[in-house]
Amino acid sequence: MTRQHRWRPATWIAWAAAAAAGIALVGGASIVISGWLIRGVEAANGDRHVAQERSSLGDYFGGVSAVFSGIALLLLIATLLVQQRELRLQRHELALQRAELGAARDELRRSAEADMRALHVQLTQMAMEDPSLAHVWNDYPDSPSPVLRQNLYANLTFSHYVLALSWGSYTEAELLIHAKDLLGSTAFRRYWDAARARKAELPPESPEGRVFRLFEQALAERRGGTTPPRA
Fold first, then answer.
1. Is 168 helix (H, G, I), strand (E, B) or coil?
2. Please, are residues 152 and 122 in contact by the beta-carbon 8 Å criterion?
3. How far is CA 97 from the centre of its chain?
4. d(CA 149, CA 143)
5. Are 152 and 121 in contact (CB under 8 A)?
6. How far is CA 170 from CA 19, 49, 115, 164, 174, in A?
7. C-alpha distances out from residue 37 to 30, 42, 43, Å
8. Has this prediction a pTM greater than 0.70?
């Protein structure tokens, strides 16, 4: 049979005593070595009085370090403020660039609109020179050639005022005065009677729709006898 080893209380006591002796030996050796190292450092750098003086000097430099740390913090805050100002200037420049791009886009739109108006004028001129071409549009059917030419020219005049109002060349009040003058012409009144039904279908907020409402207001004022006399 296999013999089982049992630890007796005396064995535990012996091991505990040996461990305590080892710990005490290591601790004592550490104390001796630490004292020897301290004496060596003092012998190389001076006694404890010198060490205290150096400690005071270190405290002085610690205060100077705190001052430099405060200066560094102020410089950091100043840098952040400068960066914030630069970002604000950049945002302002971007806003100006967006405004310039918007102005350029509006200018391109106006240029394209002017090209379309020029094409419309060219087509109208062709129809005025050759009345047979006007039947393609079928705007004024069965009109004699002189009347047809007058209607086409009156439509060009109306388109001119639409463009002028869109570009800000005339205010609505100024355009109203011009409309009253035009409606005093028998030829333009004939054109207006022939075209007003179609123009009434224009969107109210479109440039043509705005000018149509102004002409209708001018016509109503003329019929009401409120037209101011010409200078």
1. coil
2. no
3. 10
4. 9
5. no
6. 110, 97, 20, 6, 6
7. 10, 9, 10
8. no
Closest by CA position to 188, among listed 225, 161, 224: 161
Alpha-carbon span 87 to 79, nearest angstrom: 12
Cβ-Cβ contacts under 8 Å for 170 (sequence gap 6 or more): 161, 164, 178
Is the four-CA dihedral 18, 20, 26, 29 of positive or negative sign? negative
DSSP code of 132? G
Range name among 138-152, 153-167, 200-214 with the lowest pLDDT average: 138-152
Distance between first and last Cα of the chain: 144
Longest dimension (CA), the chain: 144
DSSP 165: H
